[in-house]
Design a protein that fits this description.
Blueprint lengths: L1 H9 L2 H9 L9 H25 L13 H24 L5 H27 L9 H6 L2 H55 L2 H9 L5
Helix pairs in contact: 2-5, 3-4, 3-7, 4-5, 4-7
Length: 212
């Protein structure tokens, strides 16, 4: 049941918002892009799983002396995955609206508010009893904040570098395209001015270096 809640509710808004408000041309979506994205997702999964398994190897002891347990590990891992998903969503979003901000940042806030409510209400009705008092144990443990801070950053560092390099390349192409468009428009205006025999227009264009 927890897996269903996580997969359906906690991660559905970011791709939905991107699909509605950040539509891109089909030139960016090719078979190669699909397989690269799939490989990148596996890369993130490998880092998330391997790092936390090593950290919790032998059942990590908490400051209270209790064993952390697999429910503690699973809840923390889910939150780390969620932060990675939201971070990746932010990196691939080219158009930011209030809905994008609400879907990305608001979803994590909603999760952090929903989790303590769920761990109180669900065990009270004899459902997900293993989550009883899980949140106090999570939020008072340094390992929880260590994983949520470090692991998503490690996962997304390569993506951030790629986004930065890709942005520089695209900006250069955009500048070339804009310059080419302006040049063509200026030539059209110059030819139009000659055909209309408009000395004032021609003089103004020459003063601004157009058509020389």
């Amino acid at each position: 049941m927890d897996d269903i809640i996580y997969n359906v509710i906690f991660t559905v808004l970011p791709p939905l918002v991107i699909g509605v408000f950040d539509q891109q041309k089909n030139v960016f979506f090719m078979k190669t892009t699909f397989w690269l994205c799939l490989g990148n997702a596996l890369y993130h999964s490998l880092i998330l799983f391997t790092f936390t398994v090593i950290l919790f190897w032998g059942d990590l002891k908490q400051a209270t002396g209790l064993d952390s347990g697999h429910w503690f590990w699973g809840a923390m891992l889910y939150l780390a995955v969620l932060l990675t998903v939201l971070g990746k969503t932010a990196l691939v979003s080219d158009l930011w609206t209030k809905y994008t901000v609400a879907a990305i940042s608001g979803l994590f806030v909603f999760t952090m508010l929903f989790l303590p409510l769920y761990t109180v209400v669900a065990p009270a009705i004899e459902f997900s009893t293993e989550h009883y008092e899980l949140v106090p144990r999570l939020w008072t443990d340094a390992a929880f904040y260590f994983v949520l801070t470090l692991v998503p950053i490690v996962c997304l560092t390569r993506d951030f570098i790629w986004k930065y390099l890709e942005g520089d390349e695209n900006n250069g192409m955009d500048r070339v395209a804009i310059a080419g468009g302006v040049s063509r428009d200026c030539k059209r205006l110059h030819r139009c001015g000659k055909r209309l025999n408009a000395p004032r227009v021609g003089a103004a264009m020459r003063e601004n270096g157009i058509g020389r």
